[in-house]
Every structure is written in C-alpha cells, then in structure tokens.
Specification:
single chain, alpha+beta, Jelly Rolls, Arc Repressor Mutant, subunit A, 2 domains, five-stranded mixed β-sheet, 13 helices, disordered C terminus, HTH_AraC, Tscrpt_reg_HTH_AraC_N
Length: 324
C-alpha cells in the first residue's frame, strides 16, 4: 500500500507558502546549530535535516507530525506513506516504523515538528463536541495523512511564538494544543484517532493489545494471552491488528524487539549478542538474519554506520558554532 500527496494538495501547498516561510525562519532561529530541539512546550519537538537521510528506525507515539519544508517517507509494515508540506501525518497508536527524509539541502533544509497527542484530552473533546456521531467504521492503519491547512499552520505559528514568552505557555499553550486536537479530530484523518480513543471500539481494543506488546515484547508471545488482554477473540484480533498496524502481532513484536536492540547497541553500547538476549531472542543467527532484513545491514555494521553519521553531524554543528 502506498499513501502519498495528490494533485489536490498543490493548491494547499501554495496557499500555505507564506506561513511556512515565516515558520521556517522561526524554527531555524530556535534550533540555532542543533538538528533537534525538545522545547519547553510539553510534547513539542522541532527538527531540521540538511541532507537526505538513509532509512532509520523510529517508534512513533500518538502524535501529529507536520513538515514545514521538505518531504519524508514512513514505512509501516507493508504500508508506505509519502508526505510533504501539504499533508500532516497522524499517528494514533505506538507504531514501529522505518523513516527517511527525501528532500533536504543545506540551502533548503528539511524542517518539521512533532507534537505528541494527549489521548485523554482527545477522548474528552470527542464527547464535548459530539464527534462520535460522525463515525462509521474507520478502515486502515493507525497512521494516516490529512490536509495541512492554513489554519493548522496558523495554530503552529502561534504555538511556536509562545517560546519567546515562556510565562504564557501554561495557559495559552494548552488552548492552542486543544485547537490542534479539534482540527485533527474534525479532519478527514480524524476518524482514525476517534476510533482509537473511544472505549469499546475495535480500534481501542487493538490499542490495548499494542500497549501490552510494548510492555511485554521480550516475552514469548502467546496469541491467546494477547487476545484475552485485549478482550477479543483470536481471529478478530488477528484481523483488526493487521488492519491497524499493517503487521501481524508476531511481526509487530519482532519489530519492537529489533528497534529496542538497535537502541541498546547505540545508547548503551551493548554488543549484538547481549542486545539480542535482552530483547528476547534465543538464537543469535535468527536475530542477525531478521535485523539485516529490517535495517539493511548486520547489527554491528549498521550501528557503526549510524555512529559515523552522528559523528559527522556533530562535527558539522561544532564547526558552525566555531565560525559563529
């Protein structure tokens, strides 16, 4: 499956160009010589890349991602999402993905934001605005793209402007984030999020199964136990789990294990053998084979390449700081 912007997005991209140009300037100033910034606004992260990236692993939490400049590919199981400044990416549940920045240069860097979503607030808003009446059965994965409108970019501008007046963040930040929730929930992609947060829906039950897997990924998977934890029958679980994640429960657990093993080797400097044991693998051969299939290289070669890339980026940032 491939999800990408279409011809209808061209008008919206042109309409938001002035807003995005100002946003790019604001974000570049805040980032200074850094690639990423976790801001003082809860849940808001700013990102910049000056070159096309190799495919990398990323575990999305429930969030809204908006590109101010550039484009990106996100692979979830057998589903691929291509999106740019004309569309936002909504993630309704925790999902292990492979991501790649597709358009970025030093002159026109890739610039984006990630805003984590408060699912409790989303549930309350659905009740307050009576959005549940809009819902038919929402088909598709727990990830969706929707129109990145001038209203959304306007709200983003006002949210980022608060970083210059920190005392206003506790009050006005919450109000603007509620506006984001409202606009996303009422957008064409909003049905995906509404189905996840409403109790009793199949989407909500699968979200419970996903959370169970995330907490227990290193344990041997018994599908009956997972079905019981999510309040579903085994066949119903398999069907709806694949619809929401583009993977079977076993494939999803495998992706969680491999993403965590990669993190352990990078951040805790574990070797491949110890990392594989930590995440639940009993066979080093199986771990190496599945790791290479997902990330494109054997574990230690992949980690070495990632460290080299990070060192190059750090060196570039250091040189920029010295020049300034």
């Amino acid at each position: 499956m491939l999800f990408q912007p279409n011809e209808e997005d061209d008008h919206r991209r042109a309409q938001t160009a002035p807003l995005r140009s100002e946003l790019a300037r604001m974000i570049a100033r805040l980032l200074d010589d850094h690639d990423d910034l976790v801001t003082s606004i809860p849940g808001l992260t700013l990102n910049r890349r000056t070159s096309v990236s190799a495919p990398g692993s990323y575990l999305y939490e429930p969030s809204l991602s908006m590109i101010v400049q550039g484009s990106k590919r996100v692979v979830l199981g057998d589903a691929t999402y291509l999106y740019d400044e004309s569309r936002f990416l909504l993630t309704a549940v925790n999902l292990p993905t492979i991501t790649q920045v597709l358009a970025a240069t030093p002159e026109e860097p890739y610039i984006s934001i990630l805003l984590t979503l408060d699912l409790v607030a989303a549930k309350q808003m659905i009740a307050d605005v009576d959005l549940a009446e809009r819902d038919a059965a929402a088909e598709g994965t727990g990830m969706a793209t929707g129109p990145a409108t001038a209203a959304l970019f306007g709200a983003l501008t006002r949210l980022i402007e608060l970083l210059d007046t920190p005392k206003d963040i506790p009050i006005l930040g919450d109000l603007i984030q509620r506006e984001f929730l409202y606009r996303v929930l009422t957008s064409p992609a909003g049905a995906r999020l509404r189905q996840i947060v409403r109790l009793g829906t199949q989407g909500n039950r699968i979200a419970c199964a996903i959370n169970w897997l995330r907490d227990n990924y290193a344990r041997p998977l018994r599908i009956e136990e997972l079905a019981e934890a999510s309040g579903m029958g085994v066949s119903t679980l398999h069907h709806h789990f694949r619809l929401l994640t583009a993977m079977s429960p076993l494939q999803f657990q495998k992706h969680l294990r491999l993403h965590e093993a990669r993190r352990l080797m990078l951040s805790e400097e574990l070797d491949a053998g110890n990392a594989s044991l930590r995440v639940g693998y009993e066979s080093a051969t199986q771990f190496n084979r599945e790791y290479r299939r997902l990330f494109g290289a054997p574990p230690m070669r992949d980690v070495k390449a990632l460290r080299l890339t990070s060192a190059v980026q750090l060196g570039r940032s250091t040189r920029t700081a010295v020049q300034l």
